[in-house]
Structure formats: C-alpha cells, structure tokens
Amino acid sequence: MKPKILVVEDDKLVSFEINTILDRNGYDVNICDSYACCIKNLDTFKPELILLDIDLSKKYEGIQIGSYLNSKSHIPFIYITGYTDNETLKRIQTTKPVGYFSKPFREIDIINNIELALYNKKSESDDNNNHEDIEESKYSKPVSRALEYIDTNLNQEIKTEELIRVSGWSKFHFIREFAKEVGVTPYQYIFDEKMKLASSKLKNTYQPVKEIAFDLGYTSNSSFTNAFVKHSGLSPSHYRKKYSR
Q1: Are 77 and 23 in contact (CB under 8 A)?
Q2: Do residues 187 and 221 share a domain?
Q3: Distance between CA atoms of 215 and 192, rounded to whole angstroms?
Q4: Domain that holds residue 228
Q5: Which residues have CB under 8 Å from 140's CB, separation 6+?
Q6: 142 and 86 share a domain?
Q7: DSSP at 241
Q8: Could you give the count of Cα atoms lying within 13 Å of 153 in the half-sphere of its Cβ?
Q9: What residues does the Response regulatory domain cover (predicted)?
C-alpha cells in the first residue's frame, strides 16, 4: 500500500509541483489549502505524514496547524517554508516537526525528508509495540478507557457520567479507582489537561482566545478566562504576552 501524504499548501503552482514529485515517487497524495481542509482530512484521508506550508491564508497559519497536530493527532509533519530567519525557526521548533525544507526546493530534499520521517515513525511504532505490555499495566483497562475518552474529547464538555459509562464501573468505584491510579480526581484531571492544551496554544499560536475557549469546550470566553486564571494566576491575554515565543 502506498504511504499517504497530505500536502497543505495554498500556492497552486507549488502544490502541483509537490504532487507531481510525490506521485512520481510512489506516494498516495491529497492536497489541502486551508486549516479547515487539513483538519477534515485527518479523518477522511488518514495521512501517515503531512507536508505543511507555514503561511497559508494567514501568516504562520501553518504553525497553528502544527501546534494542533502536535497536541491532538500526533501525525508527523514537515514544514515547507520560504523563511529562514531566527524568529520563524524558533516558532517552528516549538511545534516539534520531524523536518523542514525551504523554498525553492529540490526533489531530493523532499524525498529524503519524507523517507526519514516515515522510517522514524515505523521505528517508534515498533518500539511502542515492544513495550505494549508494560504500558498496559500502568492503568487498569476501565481507567485506560476513561483516559482515552478524555484525550479524544477535550474539545467538548466532559461529564463524569460519560466516563463512568465508558469504564463500566459503578460511580463510587470509578471515582475511587481513578483517583488511586491517576493521582487526581477525574474532574481535576480533565481541568489540568484542558489548561495544558490552552497554555500550549497561547504560547505557540496566534489563535484568538475566543477560539481556544471554543476548541476546549467552553461555552463562553468568560468561563474559560475564569478557569485559566484559576489555573495559572494570569488571564489568557497576559499569559500569552508573558510567555509567547
């Protein structure tokens, strides 16, 4: 089966050139030109690797996508950039890409980056499989199911009743065992995970605070702000001003 590569590039000439190169080298390719298209294709196309232009319709929009991929999907991605200045390189590094190449590019630059990224992904997967038994023993299966549910639903309100249903335990038993195994209550764990993700977005992206609040399942900007102040002691805007890179 051909490796699936998603190319996120809004310059049609550049995306056509990359598509031609990848097709010639035996890859299954899909092209996107926006944030929304990329997020949609994570589920519909299910890429193994993403080539991501730093600038789409907005400057550094690609880095916002990179931050999302790093925190949510864990699909490896390679940046395509026309910038080589220190500020841009620092922004790139915070989102942990597996590589990057500059425009204008050579075919060998693209293929070498892709082959190395896919090789490392396979090696990491093999290592994870070798340690599967150890990882599975860290939490009981009911708690593991609850943690997985939380991780995939941070973009909405997560109710304890849903976690209880997923675990298959009674309410009292679930809350007691979750706190025993994880070290905090389900409510505190959800809160901490949402705030970690919010902090990362505020530091590493230009995404508006209102959008971050919505992405984390908060129904209003004020409720998100109150939660973030409780967590960090700073409002989201002050936190971004103090810690953004």
Answers
A1: no
A2: yes
A3: 15
A4: 138-243
A5: 177, 181
A6: no
A7: H
A8: 16
A9: 4-118
Same domain, 150 and 94: no
Query: How would you write the pLDDT of the chain (245 residues) with one tens digit per residue?
Result: 789 999 999 899 999 999 999 999 999 999 999 888 998 999 899 999 999 998 887 776 788 888 888 777 778 999 888 777 777 777 777 788 888 888 888 888 888 888 888 888 777 666 555 555 444 558 999 999 999 889 888 888 899 999 999 999 999 999 999 999 999 999 999 999 999 999 988 988 888 898 888 888 888 899 999 999 999 999 999 999 998 76
Rounded to whole angstroms, the Cα distance separating 34 from 32 reads 6
Q: Do 172 and 108 belong together in one domain?
A: no
* Residue at 143: amino acid letter: V
Alpha carbons 81 and 83: distance in angstroms, whole number: 5
Residue 169 near residue 161, CB atoms below 8 Å:
no
Separation in Å, CA 42 to CA 10, 35, 76, 78, 232: 17, 11, 12, 15, 32
Place of tokens 């915070």: 94
Whether 123 and 146 share a structural domain: no
Q: Cis before residue 236, ω within 30 degrees of 0?
A: no
What is the SS3 assignment for 1? Answer: coil
Q: What is the rounded distance in angstroms from the CA atom of residue 78 to the CA atom of residue 19?
A: 15
Dist. CA 121–CA 3, nearest whole Å:
12
pTM above 0.85, yes or no: no
The two tokens of residue 117 are 């990224």
